[in-house]
Amino acid sequence: MSDRTGPGWMDPERMDPERMDHDLDQLFATARDTAPELPDSLAARMVEDALAVQAEALTSPAVERPVLRIGIFRQFLALLGGWPAMAGLATATVAGIWIGMSPPTILTEGASALGWQSVSGEDAYLVDTMSIFDTLAGEG
Questions:
Q1: Angle at CA 89, nearest 5°, toward 102 and 80?
Q2: What's the DSSP call for residue 34?
Q3: DSSP assignment of 37-84, as one string?
Q4: pLDDT of residue 1
Q5: Which of 7, 11, 47, 110 is the most buried (most CB within 10 A)?
Q6: How far is it, in rounded angstroms, from Cα 122 to Cα 32?
Q7: Are 39 and 48 in contact (CB under 8 A)?
Q8: d(CA 109, CA 45)
Q9: In this structure, what DSSP letter does residue 6 have?
């Protein structure tokens, strides 16, 4: 264990925030004024390595990279906006099927208020949609 009763430990003068700031300012000023020196041998090795890499780059043949073909699924995925967009589409699809199979009461009551026939339960599967198409085809 360290001796916490020795001279200077918890000295009020050393713990003064203004004095600590002043000491730090002096240290930073000294660091700014003294520029770090790079040894000549290190600088020479760096230049030598750089020249060797440049010479190797000039003499080595260019590497041909294979052309990557992007599949149709990837192109379609990119067209839609990537995987986040696909997740949104899947969620909307599931929500649409869910609401279509068991609609909330506000939708069925709203349809009744507009004069549409409200269908619920097992009868929802017995609705003949061809009558709608026949009506639309007969009007045209």
A1: 160
A2: S
A3: PPPHHHHHHHHHHHHHHHHHHHHSPPPPPPPPPPPHHHHHHHHHTSHH
A4: 45
A5: 110
A6: 84
A7: no
A8: 84
A9: S
Which residue reads 């619920």 in tokens?
Answer: 120
Confidence of residue 109 (pLDDT cuts 50, 70, 90): confident
Query: Which of these, 98, 72, 95, 76, lies nearest to 85 by C-alpha position?
Result: 76
How many other CB atoms sit within 10 Å of the CB of residue 110?
13
Range with top average pLDDT, 12-26, 98-112, 119-133: 12-26
Note the pTM of the prediction, 2 decimals.
Answer: 0.34
pLDDT digits 0-9 by tens, 85-95: 999 999 999 99
Is residue 13 within 8 Å of 19, Cβ to Cβ? yes
* Residue corresponding to tokens 């730090």: 24
Measured in whole angstroms, the distance separating CA 62 from the mean position of its chain's CA atoms is 35
Under DSSP, the state recorded for 35 is P
What's the token pair of residue 14? 């050393």
Q: Residue 4 has which token pair?
A: 């916490």
